[in-house]
Amino acid sequence: MHQILITNDDGIESPALKALEAAVSHLGCVTVVAPDRERSAASHCITLDELVVYKEIAPNSFAVQGTSVNRVITVLIRISNKPPSIVISGVNRGLNVGNDILYSGTVAAASEAVMQGIPAIAISTARDYKAAAGVAAHVVARVLQEGLPPDVLLNVNYPEIWNGEFRLTRQGRRSADPLTDCEALGSGYVSICPLQINRTAHAHFEHFTRWTQSLAALVATGE
User: Fold this and answer.
1) Structural domain count of the chain
2) CA-CA distance, 112 to 153, in Å (whole number)?
C-alpha cells in the first residue's frame, strides 16, 4: 500500500488540509503532519537552534512546531520508520505562482521531499479548495503510477473558475507571458508547472565560462 504524507503551511486546523486528506485517502495510507499554527511565506527556512516538538492529535495526524520543511524532516527522522511514497503539500489557500514560489512554504515542503528522494507535488488554489483537492488526487494517482524525474516536483495551481482543462506551464513573472503559470490561471486552466531543485542557469553557462577565462587572464597578468 502506498504511504502518503500530507503537509501544508496553513496549519493543522486548515479545512483545506482535511479536504485533501479525504480526496487522496483511497490511494493509500495517509499520514498528516502539519504546523501547529500558520507558517505561510517561510520559504525553505528550517529550525536549527531549538527542539522541534510534535504531538499526535489523532491517529496518523501530527501537529509540529516549526516550518514546512521541518515537518518533512521530522517525519523522515522521528515519526515514520520508512519514507513515504509521495509527499503532497497543500491545499494552500492562495496561489503559488510566479515570484511567489520563492517565498512559498507550500512549495518548500515539496522541494525538501524531492531533495530527500521522495516524489512530491505542491497544490494551491485561488478559492475552491475542495475542487483543488480533487484535482490533486488525480495528479497524485498519476505520479504514484509513473513516478517523477529525479529532482523534479510538480507545482499545481487551481484557478478561480476552472475551464475543465490542464496546461503544462513554466514559472512566469507577468500574467501576459504565454505558457506561464500566471497566464494559464488567468485563462481558467489548472496549471501544472514542473520545478527543478538544481537552479544552475544552464542556458547561460557558456557565457559565464568566458568570464572565468578572462578573469583568470587578468589575474595572471596582474591587471
Assistant:
1) 1
2) 10
